[in-house]
User: What shape does this take?
Amino acid sequence: MSCEPDTGTDFLSALFETQRMLRQLADKEARQFGMTRAQWAVLAKVERNEGQKQTDLADAMEMAPISLTRLIDKLCDSGLIERRNDDTDRRIKRLYLTEAARPLTAKLAVLRGNLMQVAFDGVSEADMNQLVAHLETIKDNIRAALNPAATKTKEQAYG
Assistant: This one.
């Protein structure tokens, strides 16, 4: 597909502006629970994959390990996350939600749903699914451009 320069610029502008505004709204809404969007994101990632290594979480969130450590320290001090030693390597810390975090993560899940309702107001479910599918394709294209050596053709992957 060839994009006219204005079309590409419009897409990038719309994407970046949408992302910025969604982050602002999420920050605003997270404040009602006394937390930041970044802390909320950490809680959500830990909830989805309890027991993950702190280094793996930093990679998944595309954060510098020291920045993530500060966020986790605050969440530990708040009694929402705990670090546990790895069974096989005491240098490794694994992350878990505390029981105190569970009611908060349930409230944050409702808040996430509300944010999505705001964002997708007036968009049909079919269009929303198609948008997500297109964004996944765009991500795959960008991932391939970032690391062409790791990209396999369908024939190589399934042949």
Notes: The beta strands are 81-85, 93-97.
